[in-house]
Amino acid sequence: MASKNCLDLIIKDHEKLKSLHSQYMSTSDTDKKQELANTLIKELCIHSSLEETLVYPVLRDRVPEGKNLAHDAYEDHFAVERLLDEMLSMKVKDDEAKFDSKMNTMIENLFAHIQHEEGKLLPLLRQYIYPNELVELGGKMESNRPLMPTHPHPNMPKEGVKGMVAGLAAAPLDRAYDAARSAVSGQ
Asked: What pTM was computed for the model?
């Protein structure tokens, strides 16, 4: 199967995240909300890590003003990741209103970032990066997806080699935690 363009994969991820949020908002069952929140956190952490390790370095190095744009994108991710980290330590059933409030704050930040990314960053990447390179980057995103962290790590390095190594080190621990949580809770 041929790899997809990285920009299409990013948009597909954004649509999946929006769908998970919509499902979360449309249910009143706290167990289902928790399951959807856990899935959203996992998918968002994977997506963010892929962008930070593969896409933003290209943006930084190849697009005019890319250094500032990439820095701002990393900062957006950090703000969302801090909220995700707080959410991960909470349970919907313990205080649904508080969890919903945290979810809404996180989603507002996320959707503002998505709008900026799709409105400005992705068009710039399309303009300055050759189509075959975007496809190659898409292939790297697909092959690295299983290696990315599934939990927020707001204090972990995100950029460059340090970011890649930190992410690769965190991912197996995240997956072990996910498996243990699933075994205990039956989710």
From this structure: 0.91
